[in-house]
Fold this sequence. Notes:
- The complex is a heterodimer.
- By secondary structure, chain A is of the alpha/beta class.
- Helices cover 37% and strands 10% of the residues of chain A.
- Chain A has two domains: 8-225, NADH:ubiquinone oxidoreductase-like, 20kDa subunit (Rossmann fold), CATH 3.40.50.700; 238-356, Cytochrome-c3 hydrogenase, C-terminal domain (Cytochrome-c3 Hydrogenase, Chain A, domain 2).
- The radius of gyration of chain A is 22 Å and the shape is globular.
- Chain B folds into two domains: 1-50 and 277-422 and 488-572, Cytochrome-c3 Hydrogenase, chain B; 85-90 and 97-168 and 175-210 and 223-275 and 435-457, no CATH class.
- Chain B is built from 16 helices and 13 strands.
- Chain B has helices at residues 41-44, 53-58, 67-80, 86-112, 127-137, 145-160, 181-201, 203-209, 236-272, 388-397, 403-414, 424-452, 506-511, 522-527, 539-547, 552-555, and strands at 2-7, 17-24, 27-35, 282-284, 287-289, 299-301, 304-306, 325-328, 343-344, 376-379, 473-482, 485-494, 497-504.
- The longest helix of chain B has 37 residues, at 236-272.
- The radius of gyration of chain B is 24 Å and the shape is globular.
- The chains are: A alpha/beta, B alpha+beta.
Amino acid sequence: xxxxxxxxxxxxxxxxxxxxxxxxxxxxxxxxxxxxxxxxxxxxxxxxxxxxxxxxxxxxxxxxxxxxxxxxxxxxxxxxxxxxxxxxxxxxxxxxxxxxxxxxxxxxxxxxxxxxxxxxxxxxxxxxxxxxxxxxxxxxxxxxxxxxxxxxxxxxxxxxxxxxxxxxxxxxxxxxxxxxxxxxxxxxxxxxxxxxxxxxxxxxxxxxxxxxxxxxxxxxxxxxxxxxxxxxxxxxxxxxxxxxxxxxxxxxxxxxxxxxxxxxxxxxxxxxxxxxxxxxxxxxxxxxxxxxxxxxxxxxxxxxxxxxxxxxxxxxxxxxxxxxxxxxxxxxxxxxxxxxxxxxxxxxxxxxxxxxxxxxx
Amino acid sequence: xxxxxxxxxxxxxxxxxxxxxxxxxxxxxxxxxxxxxxxxxxxxxxxxxxxxxxxxxxxxxxxxxxxxxxxxxxxxxxxxxxxxxxxxxxxxxxxxxxxxxxxxxxxxxxxxxxxxxxxxxxxxxxxxxxxxxxxxxxxxxxxxxxxxxxxxxxxxxxxxxxxxxxxxxxxxxxxxxxxxxxxxxxxxxxxxxxxxxxxxxxxxxxxxxxxxxxxxxxxxxxxxxxxxxxxxxxxxxxxxxxxxxxxxxxxxxxxxxxxxxxxxxxxxxxxxxxxxxxxxxxxxxxxxxxxxxxxxxxxxxxxxxxxxxxxxxxxxxxxxxxxxxxxxxxxxxxxxxxxxxxxxxxxxxxxxxxxxxxxxxxxxxxxxxxxxxxxxxxxxxxxxxxxxxxxxxxxxxxxxxxxxxxxxxxxxxxxxxxxxxxxxxxxxxxxxxxxxxxxxxxxxxxxxxxxxxxxxxxxxxxxxxxxxxxxxxxxxxxxxxxxxxxxxxxxxxxxxxxxxxxxxxxxxxxxxxxxxxxxxxxxxxxxxxxxxxxxxxxxxxxxxxxxxxxxxxxxxxxxxxxxxxxxxxxxx
Lengths: 361, 572
């Protein structure tokens, strides 16, 4: 008979992960935590005997769209994740316990599984006055610092936790900060988007559990698996862009033909996300497919790159696409300069066409 | 003997809510509701392009996602005098129907159910008996004994692992749980069914809005064009996909949600149909226009107010009147230039953050002074409840069909009188009833959309898209019924920019602190008289609070009419 519940290690073995890879994962995690070599052994031991990886999900300044997105994941189904892969010991959205009993869940996981639990964070942390976000009488900052201290890995869900999102848009009235600005000395995996795509969220967790490594991250801490391509480059309407076929106003003849949305403000050329590849809600659609320009929600500071319906600017800058991409990454793609570099350099030779050629009807 | 208990965090809600309650002889004698997080979104949209604001305020809430975006485009369209094409209005209605179904089902199973359902008691259930009982309730496909056995085994494995995850530290075994083991098992099975179903119903939002959460909207209509001869647009395939999802949703609501709701109501009605009534006034702005949003008489959910639980009369409400809706801050962490006793209509709203509470970490708030980030709205100085119950009561009192017949039939099925509606259970039942209506209405709207397409496939009215055609100054109001209740956005546009933007949202009405006269708002009032068997296990409190479906991120925001920031980023 099969054991009632497989440990993390056992399920790794079943999925074809070798002992060697498993130890490598433990070493990576130990390094992330700043532990010595013996730490890796400790982590490996813990994971070998832990049936399901303990997970803590904190909520700060947010709208809960990340939690909502997460429960829409389809592979695996969220129920399978909760019953078979992780033990979601604390999440204000779904947990049965409230008040003191909820706090007990949080504290006992933090203490009992010190160094072994995964911390998932939804929401930004206000620093202008810590009283702008309190839970159980403690401030977001206090709770985050405590929970991050003993975490095996820290994942920031969505633009709020990754970059402060809408509440950090000008004038940022509460001093909302990304969690990596609060947590010191630890890698934070930034799973971007407002919200991130459900199966991207599940994918990051499954990657962690299945392959025993952190996914590779870009310079902004985003997993390359899902954030290494511009929406523009994976857009099924890209051929229209290349051919100079553009929507000029909503629901015009060209909109009804599904032409490119660049001229009505699409931020696809400076947005790194997998909307065009994985799509949303089990592949049903994504914003561009349903006729709306990408607003760039997986980029830091995208709110201040509005107005959303204004065409992203073109400037004469870089001539070589690869250089432009690198420069964009290096300086943080949120800035207009970086954005413009992406938008234009990739298609520098299209510029004239975009500006001068009227779309054929 | 008096005892003060604190529940913070209140879980299985959206956002950060804290309840402090005074208990005497096993009953709540007084209660204080506090929102403990603030972001300041209204300040952030100042001086931006009004056509962008739907996206910003959409992020007020990801649970009732899309409702703030809809309200925002309505407010801007109202200000600029834009009428949206019929097809766009029908799509907006369908999306709102879908939101109601998703939100209410997730609330019932994933946020509210553990108040009534003892998960661990399901381990004592006989799967064969559960199957027999389930078949009596409904023809739902997952009614076999084998299915219930597999669910029971799944919970057993979880419990035996010693890692209960989201079920850890619940109030299992509490004497206030009344369902049989089999009923508990049915409910837990449907918790899982609903979890899988909910990801499908929102695909309708992905079709029309490109994604969910946070689908896209457009001032003047919807961004998704219709073209029956184009794969890149709304076509016959997309419409058939939507129909399939809506039919499945209707089946789920009728065969799972409603039967479970009646099963729970039957068991708990003797006690909970008379607890948790709270304030006795009810407000609804109404929604689901049949003949254009500017014609309030065509709303499927009617607009109006009920006072003192008198169902013989419906009073009109005018959100624009300076004498009707006003917000107070006597007990909220803000200050007004006219002093703390003033009440301001949202047009004249002002806000300065003014935190006077204890420094975190703290044990208690000073409830005699300011104690929440939520302001206190009043209608003609009266506390109002908003939400599903208010909507159903206004419809019932107005004699509106199909609401009236549905309510009468439900009451008679449960053997209850209309008085039972004014309760915790009444609120929970009203939510279920209107979900059923939304399931029907979505298909009706889809039929009408299909009928409209051949003659008028327009999805956006862009005549006034260009700001050069806008007046120098314009004011608008957008009203909707969000799943949690009456929602209003107020916008002032000046020189093509947002001069002022304000939201008065459902949970602001319900969860607010006391007003300057000491009157309690809905949460606080509804808790008075609630029994508490064990102050260390606030199960009964959660029942009543959850019956409102709290949404705190919505409730807390701030205003600043004098915002003067100039966009730093100007690329042209």
